[in-house]
Write a structure and sequence with these properties.
This protein is of the alpha/beta class. It contains 16 helices and 18 strands. The relative contact order is 0.10.
């Protein structure tokens, strides 16, 4: 019987994620394991579909004949590196009605890629961690093709794409299924054989800050967000209304308040003079950045540096303190039994104004927990120490 030819890349797409078919190759044969409940979503313990499992199966506690028990033969396909060439991976395929194998459930020994917004870490089987970075992207503003183009341009030279079996991506804008699908498609084009998990950056903060313990996790950077986390998932949240309607205590809010006070002449004369000398603010330019140019939150957040350089001045310290107090009252205090949990923070504003954050937490009779500038190190620890 003449058989069609499939390439390695075509096999890789049949991983249960990028394609509904679920194929694995083993000792010169391709097996279609789609009908097996043990291969749902293209994964069986630490083994992933869409690839040659011959070497991995050598360490599994079963014999070759066990792998073929209770199988039903169907069509089969040879696979090559490229059509008409060398590497032969299959003549026949089997639909498994039952697979009598028990695979090792030891920790996976396959490369994993961990992404938190623009920070990337490749974790190798021996525990080596390789950092890289890219421009941040947000599915509210970018298509899957634009995301793919961005990471294709920046990352392969730093990390490479071969051998990555699992990707955990945490990013802004990934709270809806539609947006998660956009990111999934963009990453999937570059890593077709990888199992990809897409989550919101708030879950990244919770996992990085709390690990597997209950707590309140907060993001306090340019913007703000928070959640109550039970050690496994997010159980409560407060609405994040964004820059114009919320973000109390964030860098954008602090900078916006500072600019408002300047133009309304509601700051001490010495601070107003220093602000004028530092920025030479022109009302028209400020309004253009506020209402016509993109990312007004980042624009106003840039002014928060003025505050951090002058925390010894009562006005600057009080402005930050008021913003943090409002954050605690509007978000943290409204969680069920909020005083029972440590309150953790990640973000540049929390990190650089940590002493004021501690002071406000004490005033509110709240326990300040971890304060991280960036969640990536906490996420590495979380994923490397899976329970």
């Amino acid at each position: 019987m003449d058989l069609p030819v499939y390439t390695r890349s075509q096999l890789a797409l049949r991983n249960g994620q990028d394609h509904e078919d679920i194929w694995v190759a083993y000792k010169g044969l391709i097996y279609d394991v789609k009908l097996s409940r043990l291969w749902r979503n293209g994964k069986h313990y630490e083994h992933w579909a869409g690839q040659d499992l011959t070497e991995e199966m050598a360490d599994a506690p079963h014999f070759d004949t066990q792998y073929l028990i209770n199988s039903k033969q169907s069509a089969g396909w040879p696979v090559t590196d490229s059509p008409g060439k060398g590497w032969f991976c299959g003549k026949r395929a089997f639909h498994f009605e039952k697979i009598l194998i028990i695979l090792s459930i030891a920790q996976t020994l396959t490369p994993m890629l961990l992404i938190a917004d623009s920070d990337w870490r490749l974790i190798s089987p021996d525990g080596e961690i390789k950092p890289a970075g890219s421009a941040g992207f947000n599915p509210y503003f970018q298509t899957s093709e634009e995301i793919y183009t961005e990471i294709l341009r920046e990352l392969p030279s730093q990390l490479g794409t071969l051998g990555v079996k699992e990707i955990y991506f945490y990013g802004a804008g990934c709270s809806t299924e539609k947006n998660r699908s956009i990111v999934q498609e963009g990453l999937g084009k570059l890593f077709p054989a990888a199992l990809i998990h897409i989550s919101h950056d708030l879950l990244a903060a919770a996992r990085a800050l709390c690990g597997r313990e209950a707590g309140i996790a907060c993001i306090l950077g340019t913007g703000v967000n928070s959640c109550l986390y039970d050690g496994t998932g997010i159980t409560e949240g407060r609405p994040s209304l964004g820059f114009w309607l919320g973000d109390e205590g964030g860098g954008g809010y602090l900078g916006k308040t500072l600019v408002q006070n300047y133009f309304h002449e509601e700051m001490p004369p010495d601070i107003r003079q220093q602000f004028a000398e530092t920025y030479q603010p022109v009302l028209g330019e400020v309004l253009e950045n506020a209402y016509k140019k993109p990312f007004p939150n980042s624009y106003f957040a840039s002014y928060s540096r003025f505050l951090s350089d002058r925390l010894d001045h009562p006005y600057c310290r009080q402005l930050v303190q008021n913003g943090f107090s409002l954050f605690f009252d509007r978000y943290v205090a409204k969680y069920t039994d909020s005083h029972r949990y440590p309150v953790h923070f990640t973000g540049s504003v929390a990190y650089y104004f940590q002493d004021i954050l501690q002071s406000v937490a004490n005033e509110k009779n709240l326990q300040l927990g971890n304060v991280l500038k960036n969640p990536i190190e906490g996420l590495i620890s979380y994923h490397q120490n899976k329970s």
